[in-house]
Amino acid sequence: MNGLLSKVEEVVTAYIAAWNSDNLDAMFRLFAPDAHWVNVVGMHWRGREAVERAHRVFFDLMFKGVDLRLEEIESVIALPGGVAVAVVRFHMESSYLPDGVVRPAGFYRLTLVLVPDGQSLLIAHGSNVGIVEEAQHLDPMLRR
Amino acid sequence: MNGLLSKVEEVVTAYIAAWNSDNLDAMFRLFAPDAHWVNVVGMHWRGREAVERAHRVFFDLMFKGVDLRLEEIESVIALPGGVAVAVVRFHMESSYLPDGVVRPAGFYRLTLVLVPDGQSLLIAHGSNVGIVEEAQHLDPMLRR
After folding, report:
1. Contact residues on chain A for B113, CB-CB shorter than 8 A
2. Looking at the partner chain, which of A34, A41, A107 has a beta carbon nearest the beta carbon of B77?
3. How many Cβ atoms from other residues are within 10 Å of residue B41's Cβ?
4. Cα(B90)–Cα(B96) distance, rounded to whole angstroms?
5. Which of A78, A110, B8, B122 suits a disulfide with B32, CB 3.0-4.6 Å?
6. pTM of the model
7. Do B44 and A74 touch (CB under 8 A)?
8. DSSP character for B114?
9. Among 3.30.930.10, 3.10.450.50, 3.40.50.620, 3.40.50.460, what is the CATH number of A2-138?
10. What residues are paired with A113 via a beta bridge?
11. Candidates A107, A111, A141; nearest CB to B53
12. B55 in helix, strand or coil?
């Protein structure tokens, strides 16, 4: 399990480093060919090529130079076949939407599904949820 | 792969039926013991017991009688070890937040990670993203 955690850390660290250096070539070397992605507003991209093309468009539009910061790898669950599911909390700087409106800085919880690839892991799926701060006081599991 | 799809359909159909009949006992028979869940506002519940307790609180507060409708199982990816990742689009009726504010009806994309359990599948992870309708025209993969 510790071996799995360190493999997840490797992928997450490389993902954040690739994001922060606008290096999408490096980012998409971390993805499996049939990877899917659901972004924070619910767009669903199917296959690494589509995920990569969409990310390139959004980097050109709004994400270049916008810093991601890893807060915590909150959970890593080991599944059969060497598959892992991780939930990663991160912070993103404010950015500008394509229409010029500011997207404020905020926290996100990204689910990553990872599959073995030799001694490493590749991203087979991502789903990114924005943490709505003003709703968190309603979390029943934080009140107990 | 068709066998896998029909197993995913079984779980999704049972999940929606359990939701629509407020039958959380049936719903959580669909979950693996170490399942995690990230809800639509970014709450992260760890372990089936926590996911179930949190769902029971929200059913009491706001979800009882609020209908879910399956729109489409948009993708099913087969991973090693018999693991599957599915993206499911569904529609939820409007509901009332605990403070009385209306949560409007809308569409969601739920990622489910499923693990084999005998001849069936169990939910090992869920991550639910609200589809922001007014952002969808920016989806680069819909414009091509």
Report:
1. 79, 85, 113, 125
2. A34
3. 18
4. 18
5. B122
6. 0.96
7. yes
8. E
9. 3.10.450.50
10. A85, A125
11. A141
12. helix
Where are chain B's structural domains?
A: 2-138
Tens-of-pLDDT digits for all 144 residues of chain B?
679 999 999 999 999 999 999 999 999 999 999 999 999 999 999 999 999 999 999 999 999 999 999 999 999 999 999 999 999 999 999 999 888 889 999 999 999 999 999 999 999 999 999 999 999 999 999 864
Tokens at B142, concatenated: 């819909």
Sign of the CA dihedral with B44 first, then A115, A44, and A105 last: positive
Q: How far is A80 from chain B (nearest CA, A)?
A: 5
Interchain pair A54, B139: CB under 8 A: yes
Cross-strand pairs, A133? none
Q: Closest-CA residue in chain A for B131? A: A42
- Looking up tokens 């896998």 gives B4
Q: Of A123, A70, A60, A77, which is closest to residue A92 (Cα–Cα)?
A: A70
Residue A21, min C-alpha distance to chain B (Å): 22
> B38: which residues sit within 8 A by CB, 6+ positions away?
A87, A109, A111, A127, A129, B44, B126, B127, B128
Size of interface A-B (CB pairs under 8 A): 152
Residues in chain B: 144
